[in-house]
Amino acid sequence: MTRGYDKTKRAFDLTIAGLLFVLTLPIQAATGLAIRIRLGNPVLFRQTRPGLHGELFEIVKFRTMLNVDPELTRVDDTSRMTPLGHWLRATSLDELPTLWNIVRGDMSLVGPRPLLVKYLKRYSPEQARRHEVRPGLTGLAQVSGRNALSWADKFRLDVQYVDHHTFMGDLKIIRSTVGSVVKRDGISAAGEATMSEFLGTDNQMESA
Question: Is 98 helix (H, G, I), strand (E, B) or coil?
Fold first, then answer.
């Protein structure tokens, strides 16, 4: 990544994410109210994720699942997912608060999606290269199949983005993202409410 590209990308991120955050405040308020009524508190989902160079930050999204409750057998994503939550994910409205992470500089509009901290020790050296750039709200993997892709394919596309990203390429990914959201492609993996856990390359191949 060249210094000029980095500055241009950051300026673009700050301008677009800041504008979208302000313009969508009425939608965010309505979404928050719906979550408060249907799911209760908290309205926001906060979780530590690894970002650029694996440095940790707190991602903020709208909550889409019920709280874990073993007595009611709500212990996995499938049992905790609600119709409202599924719709929020399908329309990507749950991601609107994440625009603030982009304004803060934790994330970019385009880049590999920030995953769980526990995955850091499960990546191969090649897969870990996905952290050489800021994580993104959308990315090459998201416009190539989203959660319908295997983990191996996702990480291959993430590293491909790291090696070949350009500003014009980012604009194409953003354009394709709009189409994917409208079509609601790849919302979840087959047989999953979201995506199966990444167990590590060797374990994932054994369980496939």
Answer: helix
